[in-house]
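Running log. JK asked me to keep both predictions on one page so they can be read side by side. First protein, sequence followed by its tokens:
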Amino acid sequence: MNNICIILLISTLLPNHTLCKANHTIHMTNSITYADTLVSPGGIFELGFFSPESSRNWYVGIWFKNIALKTPIWVANRQTPLRNATSAVLKVIRPGILVLVVDEETVWSSGTSRLANNPIAQLLDSGNLVLREENDARPENYLWQSFDYLSNTFLVGMNFGWNYITGVESYLSSWKSEKDPASGEFTLHLEPSGYPQLITKKGAVIQYRIGPWNGIAFSGSPDVSSDPAFTFTLYMDEDGVYYRGDAIDRSAITMFSLNPNGVGQRSIWVDQTQEWVRYLSLPADNCDSYSFCGAYGSCNIGEFPVCGCLDKFVPKDPSGWAKADWTNGCVRRTGLNCTAGEGFLKYSSIKLPDARDSWYNVTMSLDECKVECLKNCSCMAYTSLDIRGRGSGCLLWFGELVDIRVLSGGGQDLFIRMASSELGTNGKRKEVLIGSLTAVGIALLGLSVFVYIWKRKKNDKTGERVGIHTETENKDFQLPLFDLSTISKATNNFSIENKIGEGGYGPVYKGTLEDGQVIAVKRLSKTSDQGVDEFKNEVICIAKLQHRNLVKLPGCCIQGDEKMLLYEYMPNKSLDLILFDEENRTSLDWSKRFNIVNGIARGLMYLHQDSRLRIIHRDLKASNILLDSEMNPKISDFGIAKRFKGNETEDRTGRVVGTYGYMSPEYAMHGRYSVKSDVFSFGVIVLEIVSGKRNSGSFRGDYRGLNLLGHAWTLHKEGRSLELVDTSCANKLDNLGQVLRLIHVGLLCVQHRPEDRPCMTSAVGMLTGDVALTHPNHPGFFTEIDTALTESNRSSNTASSYNEITITMPHGR
């Protein structure tokens, strides 16, 4: 009896967290204070309070337990340091949240995916701090886990990349300094667009790139297949895409960290010397700097100068290269014209180019890959997707090839498209014929230019027609002309402080005219792929169109080589900058999102139905939707729009231009465009607005081929459409019927067959409830599953469950 009394007495004196509870778990009945730690069950990791050397701030972090040099691999309150940790408490509260509290004030808290009856926080031997229901240890049911919200360190066992089910991206962000764990300037991401690759950014600017994945490693990184202690794998399915390392030898302690200068370092702990030994550092040299030698340039650190052009390519700006300025890159010695005889040259031992504008198929052979690339004029290069064994799969590039370097003793083969004359199979006779035809062409071109200039001087002496010379166009589409000096003054001489963006056309500046009108000035860049045709097209399309959901064009400036368009200034910039930003999109509540969709729909209906010309935009996307001060949407950027007259409803082009993820299947594959092409793009934007996620790069799988459209379609079929809604506003919905109607309309607009899609007049009626909803069919996916299925689809005119190919055009805006 005396012993029992002594035990009870001791129990009243000890803190409750030391009793009957494992020291790796926090329950709602205990907590962690300044003097306490959690230790994982195997004694590998420890959680507690720490202060960086020479710092007065305190943080909650996780570090390796049995290493003398305390190295935090995760920090909870990295943005909100504690000035005094003695009164701080880390505890679990209902409905299942881990909180750091100081004097009853919450300094940091975790998230949670759902309510829990008996939530606990547990530190695992992997270094993962998990929040879960006490009686449910299944990883898929975790309420929250630190592995989803990484700091600056990547460990084996972590999933680095995208979880499409939760919408969470796990990525690294550097510390601000060695003494300050707050988020720094640099981040490292697994970029899922095209084919996955690793990209390090400083802010929004790419610094260096490793990739794409080749079945063994990321192209351009050291070969990790021979590492005896670890295996590294890229996983891709409908649930997500992520990179993971797993330990073979669990006695080895290693980590990869992103330091405050943006350098990625893999280190291993050596017990004998009691220190971290670095055995990998990226970037390793100047050739790792992103696009250091420009498009089609090749960087070789073993040569001087390090930059050169790929074989059969020449400097785009020879004078720049003479000054060691390689930013303009290279161009083909002989240009492409998509004629018979074009083929491919093999380039070996190189780091594969940026794969964000790429398409892949896991089942094709290399020969099939070549055929697929050759029949599409926009395809610039191809290679094997997986280099293991004899190789398999197909990876195609569209657009310019950038960020290439020579890798001695490594790298891969890349097959780049070339003109027939560069393939070494043509005799001198053909070269002479080509030379003669070229000379004749130049002569005819010179004559045409002479006639054009003579006519222009004769018929348009004042030059006030903006390069538009038909009688009808002169009459209907004039714009006020502004002097260059006026625009220069309004933009403070085009100062960098006034620059608010940049696109395919060129930079955009904010300006204020003398009358106080605030404008946005889009200035044609001398290196832009766009030019007079797009300039003229934009003027014609929107100068006389008046609608509250179309951007207004107050005037233009044409003086010498300068060509500028003046827009009304939009203080909230473009929709994509808000919608796809983790913090900014919280300002888009459901009512704002619905109003934006309605505004876009009415603007499109005006273009298709009510304007004096039927106009097809052809590049409708979130970045071309501008938002005014009241978040009203304005459709902009009509540079590649097409005008129809009379009863014209569709047309066909051999030059497909647009943006990956928004182009309709019939336009991307066959060059056919109509008002239904814009309807498809509108449907994509609707689903992006609902979900807060991009169609390009989201929910893309290796076999099932799920992008955002596929994900929305799957949820719709299973009666779970509400799961598509952006988590930032999912808990604040007051009209579920309206939400479901919007998703339904989006799916109707992205149906594979254009004839199944509603016209915009019907779509507007559906949004308001005035037009009944029909049952949607399968959407267009832009992925390919199986070669045999693809061939059968090409011979069929019926609706299919997927599209043949993903296309990103070289001049996509």
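And the second, directly underneath as requested:
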Amino acid sequence: MSFQHRSEVDQLRMAADGGGATVLGQVLAGTGGVGKTQLAADYARTAWHGGEVDVLVWISASSRSAITAGYAQAGVEVLAADPSDPDRAARAFLAWLEPKAGQQPCRWLIVLDDVADPADIRGWWPPASPHGRVLATTRRREAALTGAGRRLVAVGSFTPQEAAAYVTAVLAAHDRHEPTDQITGLAAGLGHLPLALAQAAAYIIDADLTCASYRELLADRIRKLADLLPEPGALPDDQTATVAATWSLSIERANQARPVGLARPMLELAAFLDPNGIPTSVLTSTPALAYLTEHRSQAHLATPRRARWWTARQHRKPVAATADEAVSTLQALHRLSLIDHAPTAGEVRVHQLIQRTTRDALTSRQRSQLGSATADALTTVWPEDERDIVLARALRMNAAALTHHSEDTLYQKDRTHPVLHHLGLSLARTGQVAAAVDHFEHVVSTATDRLGPGNPTTLAARANLATCRGKAGDAAGAATAFAELLADRERVLGKRHPDTLATRNNLASYLGEAGDAAGAATTFAELLTDVERILGPDHPTTLTVQHNLALWRGQAGDPVGAATAHQELLERALRVLGPEHRMTINVRNNVARWLGEAGDAAGAATAYDDLLPDVERTFGPDHPDTLAIRNNAALWRGKAGDAAGAAGAFAELLQHALHVLGPDHPDTLSSRNSLATWRGEAGDAAGAARAFAELLTDRERLLGPDHPDTLTSRNNLATWRGAAGDAPGAVTAFAGLLTDVERILGPDHPTTLTVRSNLALWRGRTGDARGAVTAFADLLTDQERVLGPDHVDTLATRIGLATSQGEAGDAAGAATTLAELLTDVERVLGPDHPASLTVRENLTRWRGEAEDGMVDQSPDS
């Protein structure tokens, strides 16, 4: 129909122009349907019409006998050899190709099309000659086909641009014109495979379809690909095989290669996974090997009649496939260009149409078996911590492909398959929270319809959906969802079931995340009583609840109590779990944190420095927990007074996070947030503002404008904008942010109260001290109601109120407020806490200014 120029044409011509003293041999290798023969024909046609060769021989090289016959025919026509002795005629022609001294050189080109087996061509390669060229096409990739002056040219599918240009030209030749986006989409849907594009274009023309309507048919998974291509008698360009039939011979050859009988079932496994990269570990996993064992082809077991009784006994039980055999099978499929197997990269690629034709040949029972087998294989190799981000991404892509091709098999036997949960939770862990929510909403809906609302795995899907909603920023929605789930789990599973207790734990956590830290602490205290009674005081779940209770006690404004509670918990964790257990290390992390929050920043920094080597030894330098401890160590280094050191530590951590986690991971974004903060604290306020502006753009892109982390970035940007000298700009930014946080989080959320505090602070710094006094007074009333009078944020607001009073000219009032505050701060936080020191310094200042004012106003003596 139309020849599409492509980069391989230029490669062939460049090699031909280079010449050489030996035979210029090129081997075009690629899977069936990529256009190897068309490339060879174009090359030969151009050489002949350009007068570059005197003798052109085209040989169908599908078998050794066909090769011999082709050479023999050339011998008869060129040398008038005896046709009754084909072998002699063929040898005579090869000998004639040899360069001979004193003989007029003859320029020749031999094309060996579709070499099926390297053994067939052994001894039949044309001889080395400065006047000759040889061009072979093959689906094979063995080393035997190259070397001795022959160069491999890998031929793949069209590029997207080439594919679109080809389809456009074919349709235009029949006075058909389609929108560019539809042609591009059609080409992508067929994997840019030249043969498929040619046959699809012919079908569209013959059936008088549009590209859009054909794409709808192609997307219908019920239809087989063979039904959307021309009948064998209506194929274009003298083609002899449909796309579906193109690979059948290669599959049979691969199935006969050692290890015999495994190629077809291996290709069936790959047919349900991601064409752009299947981890080799998936195809060599225990579930994959079990499928290969059960479906090993038995065709190779044919034996003479007299030995059948022994064969029947010998093969009554399938021979177990091994991992080495699975790898060998992948290599066999690679050699025949049915897949691309890169052992060093640890992945397999396979064209999407090879996958589709493989799936089309399966029965519904086989599809069900394969769906379960591939799902089990993915689950088996899915790591818990996902430190390998490349592998984790590949597993997500493969799980998504499996869900697309065989979703029904993932909701069978009264359960949802675990791979569905792995996929959604992996999305959430890597910051793709909106996609995770969408995924679990679909899983919950499907599981409810197919398994029932009370099915335990339906309830598990609801739990994961609630968690992902919380990670997406909707803590209040997550708390509501867990409250509803708790009622159902208590009814279905009972109050003592571990899943019921886990739901109560999650409900308490999201109550805190939604702003009710005191309520979270109360709920955890009630839960702790129950888990101690049900599971015992030393059960890991009991320790987890005790840990969460201590955490939210601190979040509720009692850092000293949190530090004490974590220290008590650490002693039990060391005794029950040991020093290297993840829970023990997490408790040590919080002991250090709340030590700092209670006022001992230097002690916290030292505790983290002691903890970090133990974490690196236990988990390794790239583990997420290790990176988290490095983050906290840098944080408290800064809070202990070393802002420049903290900035340097966060810069190193960011580079590590970029390498290990990637630029869009939540922890990487958190490192950027901390680095910007401490650069500002180290004196570069303008640089901090620029960094937060860039971070805000990325968080809005990844998380959306209403996510809590996005709101935090806006808060920090406004702060450092003010610190860089633009106090009015900071006020404007905080006022806009306050409107949004009140809408998103509500007026009583701790974040809303924090933004109000910052707005009051920067209002005062613009010179509006009286406005700041009013704002701080209003905020104090709400904080005492929401957080309580002893919460650290409430105490901080009283400091801000006193400062604003003084700046507004009421030094005596500021001193009175601070004197009352000092008693409360020392009672709540202790006399040595930095807040206590700050209050004393401010009290001294404003008492002094109040006394100076009294002296200035006294009458003359």
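Observation for JK regarding the second prediction: The radius of gyration is 37 Å.
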